[in-house]
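Quick review question:
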């Protein structure tokens, strides 16, 4: 039980860190797309980055352990974090670029996370089932 709690805690912390980074990356991408690349480092954007990091951190702290313990349990952790982060950024940028509301954009970003996770689950399900078969069946 202690080991499970340590793994859970590690996934929550890692999910929060990656989520915060992803939130800032979405905010920076939106600023660059809407106002040009110089807007990324303009004066006064620090509050937007802090807010984006907070939202991303909260979402990552919840979604990373949930996905890791359920449908992505056979996927290497680095791929879970890297590919779901890319899906989240893509979904968030797409939603905000389409001028959707902030709440809707968070939902679309979460859908990007789930889409990337579903792709990972499907691609690793075949490998996991092949590893569980007897050796003479894997040689075909």
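Suggested answer, residue by residue:
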């Amino acid at each position: 039980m202690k080991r499970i709690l340590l793994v859970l805690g590690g996934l929550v912390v890692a999910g929060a860190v990656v989520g915060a980074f992803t939130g800032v990356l979405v905010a920076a991408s939106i600023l660059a797309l809407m106002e040009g690349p110089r807007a990324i480092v303009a004066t006064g954007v620090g509050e937007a980055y802090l807010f984006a990091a907070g939202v991303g951190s909260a979402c990552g702290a919840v979604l990373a352990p949930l996905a890791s313990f359920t449908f992505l349990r056979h996927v290497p952790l680095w791929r879970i974090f890297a590919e779901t982060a890319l899906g989240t950024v893509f979904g968030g940028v797409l939603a905000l670029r389409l001028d959707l509301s902030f709440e809707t954009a968070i939902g679309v970003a979460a859908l990007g996370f789930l889409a990337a996770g579903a792709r990972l689950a499907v691609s690793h399900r075949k490998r996991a089932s092949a590893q569980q078969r007897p050796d003479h069946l894997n040689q075909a």
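Why it works: The mean pLDDT is 86. Residues 2-132 form one domain.
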